[in-house]
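Note to self: keep these together.
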Amino acid sequence: MRETHGETFDGAPGYLNSATYGLASRRQAEVLRGRLRAWELGEMTPRDFDVPVAAAREAFASLAGVPTSTVSMGGSVSALIGLFAAVVPDGSRVVTLTGEFTSVSAPFHVHGGRGVTVTALGPGELERRAGEFDVVAVSLVQSADGYVLDVPTLRASLAGRPTRVVLDVTQAMGWMRLDVGWADAVVGGSYKWLVSPRGAAWMAVRPDVADSLVPLAASWYASERPWANTYELPPLLAGDGRRFDTSPAWFTLVGAGVAMPWLASLDMDAVQQHCTRLAGRVREALDLPASPSAIVALDADGAEQRLQAAGLRAAVRAGRVRVGFHLYNDDEDVDRLLAALAG
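Structure:
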């Protein structure tokens, strides 16, 4: 058990797997249990879930540094990016990073039948050459190894160009201070560093770009007044980002409505410094290159087995052991990790 910034995380000691899924706080779990009990007793009211939906939307906007009115709610990152991919012109040239998470690249690749191409470039080369393409679809922090996008170089390459940018912040939001309002679309999932249940994602789209998107999953919840337009035709879609909403996954949003506002209330500069300091200790001890990331990829032979034997929880991605450090981690976790790797 560990306490941090007013929240208690029972499973935190030895948990280095936030890049796979974040831990629920004790408070979040208690709120979820209460809602599940209300469901069990038939005392649940669907309108009760509007409050956590709004709270999570506002928190995403705050963490991204964008207006709340631009934020749409969906069920997954790929589904939201798919709205953007569906309207890129025929023959568009999309660029992504080599080894990019498929949820970012696949929504564009499936439009190959109308001439859309997806090119993968290595770190550094993508940032330098981004302006040669019509769309950049990339994660701010890479899932496999924690590589952090060189944003200044990317933006310099795009200066004066009509290139659109779709930026996935799933592996960044929650531990990194963000200022991503410059991107055309910013998308992120709920269940990793935002320490919420799986089943929700958000996308903030610049208003001039949003006008070109089609609400392909339009439903009653995308209405200006959802509870008053459940049977109307034509539907009265919301005038802001809510017109791209899908119906909320109730209990996922209950958890997000607890965890995300908590994160948004914190000093994200301090959060980032805490997480990257711990990751930096690992890199320094193992003679790995310096990086501003909270994620570390380890090549050590037998690392997966050694961590398991030491009771440390991590993941294997792209052939390497991936560890990550969040607010509920501390120096004890680093010490245990280094001792396990030392044999």
